[in-house]
C-alpha cells in the first residue's frame, strides 16, 4: 500500500480552506512549545507554512524548559477562554516534570487541532463502531 503524503496534504488544505470560508471568520491557532527540542522547530515551521497556505494565523507560545506545570495550565485556561483562538496545538515532547495527560486534558477539546484530547480520541474510535459519540 502506498501513501501519498502530498495528495493527503492537499486534500486537508482544501478541507480547511472550505471550513474557514463557510465559517466566514478568521482562524487563529496557538502552538505551545516547551524547551528547544531539535526536530520541533522544523515541525513547527512546516505547520506555519501549511497555515499560511490556508490563511490561518499561527501564534507560537514558547516556554523555557523549566516552566511549571501550573503555569502551563494557567496559559491553557487563558487560551480556552480566548474566543479569538480557534485552535491549540501542544508540541511534544514536553519535559519530564510536566505530565502530558494533564496538559492535554486541560485543553478545550473543541480547539484541539490534532485530535489528541480524550474526547476527540473517543469520537475517532467510536466512528469505527458505527455509533455516534455522546458527551455531556
Explain what this protein looks like in three dimensions.
With 136 residues, this protein is α/β, with parallel strands linked by helices. It has a single domain (28-127), classed as Rossmann fold (3-Layer(aba) Sandwich), CATH 3.40.50. 48% of the residues lie in helices and 15% in strands. The chain contains five helices and three strands. It has helices at residues 5-23, 38-53, 69-81, 100-106, 118-127; strands spanning 27-34, 56-63, 87-90. Strand 1 (27-34), helix 2 and strand 2 (56-63) form a beta-alpha-beta unit. The chain is globular, with a radius of gyration of 16 Å.
Unreliable parts: 132-136
Biggest sheet character: 3 strands, parallel
Percent helix, as a range, is 40-55%
- The gross shape turns out to be globular
The domain tally reads 1
CATH topology: Rossmann fold
**Superfamily (CATH H level) name:** Leucine Dehydrogenase, chain A, domain 1
- Provide mean pLDDT, rounded: 82
Radius of gyration over all CA atoms, rounded = 16 Å
Distance between the termini: 40 Å
Q: Biggest sheet, strands in spatial order?
A: 2-1-3
What is the succession of H and E elements? Answer: HEHEHEHH
User: Which structural class should the secondary elements be placed in?
Assistant: alpha/beta
CATH architect. name: 3-Layer(aba) Sandwich
Helical run tally? 5
CATH level 1 class label: Alpha Beta
Number of strands: 3
Residue share in β-strands: 5-15%
Amino acid at each position: 500500500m502506498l501513501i501519498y503524503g502530498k495528495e493527503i496534504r492537499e486534500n486537508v488544505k482544501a478541507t480547511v480552506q472550505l471550513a474557514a470560508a463557510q465559517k466566514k471568520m478568521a482562524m487563529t491557532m496557538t502552538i505551545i512549545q516547551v524547551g528547544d527540542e531539535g526536530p520541533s522547530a522544523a515541525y513547527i515551521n512546516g505547520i506555519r507554512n501549511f497555515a499560511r497556505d490556508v490563511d490561518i494565523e499561527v501564534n507560537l507560545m514558547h516556554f523555557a524548559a523549566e516552566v511549571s506545570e501550573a503555569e502551563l495550565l494557567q496559559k491553557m485556561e487563558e487560551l480556552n477562554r480566548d474566543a479569538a483562538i480557534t485552535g491549540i496545538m501542544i508540541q511534544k515532547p514536553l519535559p519530564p516534570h510536566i505530565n502530558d495527560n494533564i496538559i492535554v486534558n486541560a485543553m478545550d477539546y473543541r480547539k484541539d487541532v490534532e485530535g489528541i484530547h480524550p474526547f476527540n480520541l473517543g469520537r475517532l474510535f467510536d466512528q469505527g463502531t458505527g455509533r455516534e459519540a455522546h458527551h455531556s
